[in-house]
């Protein structure tokens, strides 16, 4: 099994895209998946002694590479879900009486990067913060990742 490609977030471009400091020179290809990692990790303590046994890397968000240059790549969030922003449609629940008569209006919402850094657009995601300098690590696709919609 080959070692994963490791790099860092070089810049957050917008709510869905970031640049990483590894590219074709390191073996990155379009379509590869990377996890943006929590640089602190998660310390695991011995329940009896309280001693720290080690630290486990914890991913913040998974991104897919959409373009590659020699020394950098751009990756984007890709997980999405359908959200009804219209009427009731399937009568699953009624908020207002007028909603009964409006057809369902489903839109695709993509997972975004949450950051406190200046980006090209405002962010509204409440997941994990992503920062320039965060480590990234390539991952093998798991069931469902490769079937998700591309950005």
Describe the oligomeric state of these chains in a short phrase: single chain
Question: What is the tally of helical segments?
Answer: 0
**Helical/strand content category:** mainly beta
Return Rg in Å: 19 Å
Average pLDDT value? 78
Order of helices and strands: EEEEEEEE
Shape by Cα distribution: flat
Unreliable sequence segments: 117-127, 145-151
Q: Report the span from N to C terminus.
A: 29 Å
What is the beta-strand fraction? Answer: 35-45%
| Major β-sheet annotation | 6 strands, antiparallel, barrel
Spatial ordering of strands, largest sheet: 1-2-5-4-3-8
Helix content: under 10%
Care to count the β-strands?
8
């Amino acid at each position: 099994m080959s070692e994963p490609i490791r790099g860092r977030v070089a810049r957050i471009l917008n709510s869905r895209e970031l640049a990483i400091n590894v590219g074709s020179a390191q073996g990155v290809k379009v379509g590869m998946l990377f996890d943006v990692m929590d640089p602190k990790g998660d310390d695991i303590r011995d329940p009896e002694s309280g001693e720290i046994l080690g630290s486990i890397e914890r991913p913040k968000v998974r991104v897919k590479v959409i373009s590659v240059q020699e020394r950098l790549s751009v990756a984007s969030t890709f997980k999405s879900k359908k959200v009804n922003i219209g009427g009731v449609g399937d009568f699953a629940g009624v908020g207002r009486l007028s909603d009964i008569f409006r057809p369902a209006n489903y839109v695709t919402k993509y997972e975004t990067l949450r950051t406190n850094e200046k980006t090209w657009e405002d962010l509204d995601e409440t997941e994990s913060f992503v920062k320039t300098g965060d480590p990234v690590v390539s991952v093998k696709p798991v069931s469902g990742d490769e079937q998700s919609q591309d950005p």
